[in-house]
Amino acid sequence: VRASAVHVTKMMMLKKVCIVPPASCSSISSFLGGQSSRRPSPSWLVAFIRPFCRLAPGANAICLSKRADDFSSCDSVQFGWRRHLGTTSQYDIEDELPHSVGTYNSISIHTDQLGPHFCADNFSKILRASLERWHRNHHSSVWLHVHLEHAGLLGIARGLGFRLHHAADDAIVMNCWLNNELTDRVPPYASHQVGVCGCVIRRDTNEVLLVKDRHKLPVWKFPGGLSDHSEDIADTAVREVGEETGIDAEFKSILAFRQQHHQPNTFDRSDMYFVCRLDAKTHEINMCTHEVLECRWMGIKELANCTDTTPLSRRIAGLLIQGQRNDYKSVDITMEQFDAVYPGLTYKLFHRPVELSMPKSTRPTPSLDHIAQDYS
Question: What's the pLDDT score for residue 295?
Answer without folding.
Answer: 98
